[in-house]
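For practice. Any example?
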Amino acid sequence: MGVFASHESVSGTISQRIGAVVETSPKQCYREDTPSARAMAARNQEDTVLTHHAEAATQTAAEEASPMPSEFESAGADALLERILSSLAEDKAEEVVTIDLRGKSEMADHMVVCSGRSSRQVAAISEKLVERLKADFGISSKVEGKDAGDWVLIDAGDVIVHVFRPEVREFYQLEKMWLPAGGTGKAGSQA
């Protein structure tokens, strides 16, 4: 039994030593109570504090650099909306609904939802709108879904445009999510 007791004390000592070793990389080990371990912990804490302060300074600078929308930006969004509506009218888009998103969403100031009679017309409406926005405003719009022609999303910055085939529009009923309660989805309506 004396041999067994000494074995326990030896294994206890080994486990204490193993517990005190912290591995930092596959090639390097050091003890927690050494000066280099304390220095490493201090550097890590300093890095964390400096990173936090740098992120806070960057966020503050970004907030100062992008103030609230001015009247000029709002006028630009309204001019963009008018050009989009005239383009849709020129290309005979149907059931055009304009939804004012100011105060409801940060993604855009306006959303326009309209329909084309076929996949070919939906693609043509979208293509012409993107070309006109590039020519008139220098805006390179982001376009999704043009190849399929069922639902095309055009992100023109301050105005988001959805061009649907009628069946797809009826299925998703996108404008009903954004219209106020009791609002109608009639052609040319504005929310």
Notes: Residues 18-30, 65-72, 185-191 have pLDDT under 50 and may be disordered. The chain has two domains: 2-65, 71-178.
